[in-house]
UniProtKB/TrEMBL annotation:
Source superkingdom: Bacteria
Region (Disordered): 274-353
SUPFAM superfamilies to which the protein is assigned, alphabetical: Cgl1923-like
Compositionally biased tracts (Acidic residues): 340-353
Alphabetized InterPro entries for the sequence: Proteasome_assmbl_chaperone_2, PSMG2_sf, Rv2714-like
Transmembrane segments: none
Protein name, entry field: PAC2 family protein
């Protein structure tokens, strides 16, 4: 195998940021890495949407590019070019890059993204592992999506994988045992785990009839998982608004097409049968031994809170519960007496009208 390092091309800033010594280590040492590869596990254009958001909403700087001429089959993943009516311009060369981003809390994290390599998987993955070891990255996160026969009217499911059991336990809504076609992310997960690195993976379940469409809901869900796992803060307002628009379009199409409506109803019934006996997945925002409260629990807690606040306000004003009861009784009594006197003096009543 050829030297994996020959695939790596540093940017001027990248070489400065990534190189260091024992006395002056790289400022990126120990940071977190996100893997975002387009490919066969990109249902709903999940990684494309997340990549677009990161590059357009967060500050970033390119560190490394990889020699895509050796990695990409251009006839299988044809690049785009623009024709302006007279000539061809703006050839979009495929690029696999490592970039450093800062989130909305000014926390740095790395993103390795681009089209999935077609060739030299072992060499490319060894090049990535050399970067991981050199920077001693603390953890790596992976997000992708697969098409499944699930309805868009139910919550998006997820299959979790990786080595961080304390974080991933109880989150999966579907955990099959199967042999499947591999992707670069999965190969890197194997190598990272063998190297003792902490890996968290999230595979979203996108409705199969939306796999080739841009489905913002998948990108929002993916970013929520990533934010909780990596401790980063990423804006999702644009994606959420796009998701609401897609929901409205889907609702209209379902209403206007008996065939689509019948399919969705059948998928809902299948989904509900599968989930009714399943344990409710826990939230990443809660510890593993806690569960998401249902509506009755939330209502009871809200009522207790309001009662506590009422008692607290009364005590703060120096008014005991006994005094409040006496005052309320007195007010009711005075109100009743006042009402009876007014009724007796009403001239309309005395006139019989």
């Amino acid at each position: 195998m050829q030297d994996p390092h020959h695939l790596i091309q540093f940017s001027p800033a990248g070489r400065d940021l990534m190189t260091g010594s024992e006395d002056d280590p790289s400022p990126l040492r120990g940071t977190k890495l996100l893997l975002l590869f387009g490919g066969h596990l990109d249902a709903g254009h999940l990684t494309e949407q997340i990549r677009y958001l990161l590059f357009n909403r967060l500050n970033h700087e390119q560190l490394i590019t990889f020699d895509t001429d050796q990695l990409i089959d251009y006839r299988a993943q044809r690049p785009h070019i623009t024709f302006d009516g007279e000539k061809f311009t703006d050839y979009q060369r495929p690029e696999i890059s490592l970039d450093v981003f800062t989130d909305e809390m000014d926390q740095p994290f790395l993103v390795l993204s681009g089209p999935e390599p077609d060739y030299q998987w072992e060499r490319f993955s060894d090049a990535v592992m050399s970067i991981v070891r050199e920077l001693d990255l603390s953890q790596v996160a992976i997000v992708d999506a697969i098409p499944l026969p699930v309805p868009h009217t139910r919550p998006l499911g997820v299959t979790t994988h990786g080595s961080r059991e304390e974080l991933l336990e109880g989150l999966s809504t579907w955990s099959p045992q199967a042999q499947m076609l591999a992707g670069m992310s999965q190969l890197l997960e194997v190598k990272l785990t063998e190297n003792g690195r902490k890996v968290t993976g999230f595979t979203l379940h996108v409705p199969h009839y939306l796999a080739d469409a841009t489905y913002p809901q998948a990108a929002v869900a993916g970013l929520e998982y990533l934010s909780a796992a990596m401790g980063i803060v990423v804006p999702t307002d644009e994606l959420r608004e796009a998701g609401r628009q897609v929901d409205r379009q889907l609702a209209q199409q379902t209403e206007n097409s008996p065939q689509i409506s019948h399919m969705v109803v059948a998928l809902e019934a299948q989904f509900d049968r599968y989930t009714e006996d399943q344990e409710q997945p826990r939230s990443l925002l809660l510890p593993p031994n806690q569960h998401i409260p249902d509506g009755e629990e939330i209502g009871a807690q809200a009522e207790d809170f309001l009662n506590t606040q009422s008692q607290h306000n009364a005590e703060r004003l120096g008014l005991s519960s006994t005094a409040r009861d006496e005052d309320e009784s007195a007010e009711e009594s005075n109100g009743a007496e006042s009402g009876s006197e007014t009724d007796g003096d009403n001239p309309q009543d005395s006139d019989g009208r």
